Every structure is written in structure tokens, then in C-alpha cells.
Amino acid sequence: VSLSELDREWLLHAASLAGRGWGRVHPNPMVGCVLTRDGERVGEGWHEEYGGPHAEVNAIRSAGDTTRGATAYVSLEPCSHHGQTPPCSESLLKAGVARVVFGASEPGDETGGGGELLAQAGVEVVGPATDVRTFHEVDPAFFYTTRYQRPYLALKLAVSLDGRIAARAGERTPLTDDDANREVHRLRSGFDAVLVGGETARVDDPLLTVRYGLDPRILPTRIVLDPSAVLSPDASLFSTDSEAPVLIFATEAASVERVETLKDVGAQVEIVPQADGRADLKEMLKRCWGLGIRSVFCEGGGRLATALTREELVQRLYLFKAPLTLGPQGVLGFGSGDSTPEDLGWSSIGEPTQFGPDLLLKYDREADVSRG
Ligand SMILES: NC(=O)c1ccc[n+]([C@@H]2O[C@H](COP(=O)([O-])OP(=O)(O)OC[C@H]3O[C@@H](n4cnc5c(N)ncnc54)[C@H](OP(=O)(O)O)[C@@H]3O)[C@@H](O)[C@H]2O)c1
């Protein structure tokens, strides 16, 4: 349904509250709720902790005794099922809410139907919003995994103005400043796993942990695609105190000795088949799903990024643009260097965000966007 300007404004505020659950509630959805009476906000809340009270309940609590006759704006249709907490639709009824406006429908049969239940009880229910994409954008992994039962994959790259991700092949090239790096760690905290290619693991020797004082509920599994299992057992990945598991995907090309060496330093090693002589990326993601990994944050390098995007396995692109050029000898992120993400079938979402001198641009896959 199309919404009035005022309804839309409050609903967008509810969606921004939802985002505060990042890193604390997945694989459950991030949800935000605002309560208004006579056009004034009387309460608001969001789903703060996995297993904790839902957004509607937190909003009702914050409103005290002013909920009777209120309008509730919820980014996601209120639930109607008894899970770890009682259904939100019942809580809204008990609180005497007269009107409910929601952004996206609750996907899946098991949990849906809160809107219908409220309407049957005499509450005016408005939703889902016509521009449902806006409400999916806040928590796309939740909607994607409910629909497809395969991991949601986001690709993050730091690129120069001329689209390069490193000054030369085999060279570590820090491109972004501290503010952008902190945002990368915040993004990591909202995913079940962080993935890099074997060459990146070798050249950059990253830790792939969440730092900057952030506290994710799920420590992202650190995944390396290392087809021949040539990663050094002395790599920093294995030398941290971090309890985040290390998972190596190798192929039959890896010798038993190399696989054992990596297992000895604490890695879980999964052997995936090859397709056209390369590691089968679809199979890798299928294995991730089987291991309970619902969302993956890939941080390069260029060859892995290119292969994943070419096979249409990436749903979201986070591009941090650093204000420098690296020249033609630099390593390309993906595409030819001149092509923009739009040329490659990506659709820009939200406003670009400045982090210190760097600019974050976000894109979703055109195909996913048009499906809504
Ligand atoms: N600026 C940034 O955001 C950023 C991020 C990460 C890395 N980097 C830089 O990027 C450089 C490393 O990147 P890179 O491109 O050389 O390597 P990479 O992407 O890190 O590693 C390549 C990996 O992808 C696999 N691969 C390549 N094509 C594939 C395909 N079609 N199907 C399946 N698997 C495939 C390779 O397997 P095979 O072994 O079979 O070839 C290899 O395991 C370093 O200089 C690093 O500093 C920059």
C-alpha cells in the first residue's frame, strides 16, 4: 500500500532504529518500532538482543501508560507466533494500540500473519509498504536467507579512484583510513563469516577478527579459499587469541600433508570439488549453509571478487573509495577498471557515506532489487 508522507517518515525512523540491532540479533530479524499519539512520538524501541524482547515490546515499555489509542510503526510485520518471547501482535493488542503501520511482510508461513490477526481484532492495519525494498535494505540477509536457503553474500572492497585494490600484484596496499576501517569491523560484526581468497591471506596476512571494541554476538568464522592448502601455519590467523573459528576451503589439489598441517594449527578444512579446474564456489557456499553459516562478508581479493560476481553469487557490494589513484599497474577489483558497478548490473542504494577521507558506496544486485 502507498503511505501518507507522515506515515512514511515514521516508518523510515522505525527502519533506522532496526539497524541498531546490527551484530546482536541475527539470524533473527532486526526490527524497529515507533509509537505515536496525536502525531507525537510517545515511545520507541528495537530488537536489541537475540532471544530478548522484540522491538514492539521495547517500544511499549518505553511509552509507559500512553499506548492506548496509539499508532505503532514497525519496520517488519508484527509476529504472531510463540517463540522465545510471546507474539508481538498480542502485546500490541494488550497495549491498546489502535493502528499498526508496517514496512515489510514477515516472510515464511510459520511466523507470518500478525497483521491479519490484528485486523481481525479490530486494529487498523496498513502494510506492507509499496516501496518494500527500503525495508529489506536494512536487513537484507534475513529476507534473502528466508527465501533461498543459501548464504547471503556481501562483497567489500577498498578501491582507488581508478578502481584498483592494490598498487601491484602481491603487494599489501592499505587504502582507507581509520574511520572506514572501523566501519569495516562494524560490518563484519553483522555477518556469520568473513571470507578472503588465498592470495589475500598470503599477501596481507590478516587476522579477520572483529576489533575496535565491538562485541558481536556471533564471532564471524574466518574463511580462506585456499585451493591447494598452501597457507602457512605461521599465518596470523592462527596466532591470535581470538576464538573465532578458522575454516579453510581447499580442493582435491591439496596434498594430505598440507591439509593435516592446517588442521594441526586449529583450522577446520573442507574439501570442495572443482568445476572447470577451479574451486566450485557454489559448492563452497552450500557447505557454508550446511555448517550453519547464513551470511558471508567477502573482503577480496580481486580474483575471488571477480569470480563470485561473475557467478552472480554476490548480493551486496560495499565499495570504500579512497581519494588516490594507483595507476595501470595496480590490481583491479573487478570489471575492467573503466566499468562502474552500474555498468555491471548493480543498483546504487542509499546515500554515499563519508568516513574520514573515504566514501562508502553501497549497491544491491539489480536482479534482487527488481524482485523486491
Ligand atoms: N583493497 C582491497 O579491498 C583488497 C582486499 C583484499 C585483497 N587485496 C589485495 O588483492 C591482492 C590479492 O588478490 P588476488 O586477486 O591476487 O587474489 P585473491 O582473490 O585473494 O585469491 C585468489 C583466490 O581465488 C581463487 N579463484 C580465482 N578465480 C577463481 C574462480 N574462477 N573460481 C574459483 N576460485 C577462483 C584462487 O584460486 P586458485 O588458487 O585456483 O587460483 C585463489 O584461491 C593482494 O595484493 C591484496 O593486498 C585488496
UniProtKB/TrEMBL annotation:
Signal peptide range in chain numbering: none
Gene3D superfamilies recorded: Cytidine Deaminase, domain 2, Dihydrofolate Reductase, subunit A
GO biological process, one term: riboflavin biosynthetic process
Record's keyword terms, sorted: Metal-binding, Multifunctional enzyme, NADP, Oxidoreductase, Riboflavin biosynthesis, Zinc
The name this protein goes by in its record: CMP/dCMP-type deaminase domain-containing protein
PROSITE patterns documented for this protein: CYT_DCMP_DEAMINASES_1, CYT_DCMP_DEAMINASES_2
Keyword Metal-binding recorded: yes
One annotated GO molecular function: 5-amino-6-(5-phosphoribosylamino)uracil reductase activity
Pfam families: dCMP_cyt_deam_1 (PF00383), RibD_C (PF01872)
PANTHER family per record: 2,5-DIAMINO-6-RIBOSYLAMINO-4(3H)-PYRIMIDINONE 5'-PHOSPHATE REDUCTASE, DIHYDROFOLATE REDUCTASE FAMILY PROTEIN (AFU_ORTHOLOGUE AFUA_8G06820)
Entry-linked SUPFAM superfamilies: Cytidine deaminase-like, Dihydrofolate reductase-like
